[in-house]
Design brief:
Blueprint lengths: L3 E4 L4 E4 L7 E6 L12 H17 L3 E6 L6 H10 L3 H19 L14 H13 L3 E4 L2 E4 L15 H6 L15 E6 L14 E3 L2 H11 L4 E7 L3 H16 L4 E7 L2 E3 L2 E2 L10 H7 L2 H9 L7 E3 L1 H24 L11 H19 L4 H17 L9 H20 L7 H15 L4 H16 L3 H13 L2 E3 L8 E3 L2
Parallel strand pairs: 3-4, 3-9, 9-10, 11-13
Antiparallel strand pairs: 1-2, 5-6, 6-7, 7-8, 11-12, 14-15
The structure holds zinc ion.
Zinc ion binds next to loops.
Length: 485
């Protein structure tokens, strides 16, 4: 079965076919750069990174655009509050975003255009819409006329008549239809302004994506992504602009990731429960955020809470522990070893299951379940306790390469396993109000007691550590103790 993709436009899963053979033009709406992004904003970045990797796994060449909105009221307001130019704010938060993005270890996008670099393209685009009578000018302001675009509403399923019925009265009476939207507007005092055929002004929000897509990717693209909140009006308006200007299909597949809740509540500044991606990564780890998101299908609403985070820590610990075992076993010289046949077959079956899940609208939850099954199968071989030989070594290497290969597709399991497991333990120790020095010292006291054959004290210390949630791993020189998960 080939790749099936859920298309918001048709509200169904459909076979994926590209405009140009072997090539995918992909656009994802990026952030407005006026503040640090909250964790929910990273769901799209993490999901679409994985989507790109899987498309590449299927041998597509992907051209991926992720833009920065650097002209916006929020940026201007912040600039005014700080008494600086808006570009100071936007450049600052582009850098901050890049810091977070790099920390997540995601593959860089092919293009990260900024709106301010595309003003001539935007003006040209708006001019085309005016010429084609899709847009009209009033007092230096340009509006898109939604009545001029017959299929307006096709993405969101909204009907113009219903929209109008729900409209309050305080609309701009200059507009032909209350839902006509701004393409270009005059700049107010102190706002950034560019010369245009309609006077000094700045672009409306929706036009930037259409203009950047046209310039970088062309008239028609394969996949356009974003959070579900962008379906209406942003993406609906993008279609009207793109198709209004060119008469061609603007985008073939619209893909939207669901929202997240935090402890069953929507994150909002008024509730005060907003967690930035950075704060999450500081407290936990970027790997935990990626694992959390990819454990759930991207179209599923997700609730993040302590239990889910601990579940991710537990899951990641199982993966990395298996990698450590594989590393230990494969340290033996494996020249000429043969991979355990049954094991190899089991992994190949799981690989097919994983591919089937991924080809079913990028079901990463299924993919992770298959990888988990691979870990279980590997652990069941019990290579750690068996006599090391060339065949065990070959089998361990095979497993490690398998897990790292598919992990890479999700930007997971690429860390140094020992360091990462210590990181997970440090997170859990902190939650328990403990620290590594205290635990190490108790473990050392126990070792001394054992050396002196003082078994009673050794047992007491083991019990004490166990009560603290510490599990001793006697005989494991690399990781002598772990926090119970
Ligand atoms: Zn956009």
């Amino acid at each position: 079965m080939g790749l099936m993709v859920y298309n918001t436009l048709t509200k169904s899963k459909v076979p994926f076919e590209t405009i140009e053979e072997g090539k995918v033009r992909l656009y994802l709406c990026g952030p407005t750069v006026y503040d640090l992004l909250h964790i929910g904003n990273f769901r799209g970045a993490i999901f679409f990174n994985m989507l790109r990797n899987w498309l590449e796994e299927l041998d597509y060449k992907v051209d991926f655009v992720y833009n920065y909105t650097d002209v916006d009221d929020k940026i201007i307001n912040k600039a005014n509050a700080e008494g600086v130019e808006p570009s100071v704010i936007s450049e600052r938060y582009i850098k901050e975003f890049e810091t977070d993005f790099n920390r997540l270890g995601l593959k860089p996008h092919d293009h990260n255009p900024k709106v301010t670099d595309f003003i001539p393209n935007i003006i040209e685009f708006v001019s085309t819409l005016v010429e084609k009578e899709k847009a009209y000018v009033i007092d230096g302001e340009v509006f898109y006329s939604i009545d001029s675009f017959e299929t307006y509403g096709k993405l969101s399923g909204k009907k113009i008549d219903d929209l109008e019925a729900g409209q309050r009265v305080d609309v701009d009476t200059r507009k032909k239809n209350p839902f006509d939207f701004v393409l270009w507007k005059p700049s107010k005092e102190g706002e950034p302004s560019w010369d245009s055929p309609w006077g000094g002004g700045r672009p409306g929000w929706h036009i930037e994506c259409s203009a950047m897509i046209k310039e970088i990717l062309g008239d028609s693209i394969d996949i356009h992504g974003g959070g579900i909140d962008l379906i209406f009006p942003h993406h609906e308006n993008e279609i009207a602009q793109g198709e209004g200007a060119t008469g061609k299909t603007y985008c073939h597949y619209w893909m939207h990731n669901e929202f997240i809740n935090l402890n069953d509540e929507k994150m909002s500044k008024s509730i005060g429960n907003v967690i930035t991606g950075r704060a999450f990564m500081d407290k936990y780890d970027p790997e935990i955020l990626k694992f959390l998101y990819l454990s759930v299908h991207y179209r599923t609403m997700m609730n993040i809470n302590e239990e889910k985070i601990n579940g991710s820590i537990c899951g990641l610990s199982r993966f990395y522990n298996a990698i450590i075992v594989a590393n230990q076993v494969s340290q033996y010289d494996g020249t000429g070893g043969v991979v355990n046949k049954k094991f190899e077959e089991a992994l190949l079956t799981l690989e097919k299951k994983l591919a089937k899940g991924m080809n079913d609208d990028f079901n990463t939850a299924e993919a992770i379940a298959s990888l988990f099954e691979g870990v279980r199968t590997f652990n069941a071989l019990n290579l750690k306790t068996k006599q090391k030989d060339v065949n065990s070594c070959a089998t361990a290497i095979y497993f490690k390469e398998w897990i790292v290969k598919f992990g890479k597709m999700m930007s997971l399991f690429q860390r140094d396993p020992k360091e990462f497991l210590m990181r997970l333990d440090d997170i859990l120790l902190k939650e328990k109000g403990l620290d590594r020095v205290t635990v190490d010292s108790l473990v050392e006291q126990r070792n001394q007691a054992r050396k002196q054959k003082d078994w009673a004290s050794a047992d007491d210390l083991r019990a004490q550590l166990s009560d603290m949630g510490i599990e001793l791993q006697d005989g494991n020189l690399e990781i002598p103790w772990e926090v119970k998960k």
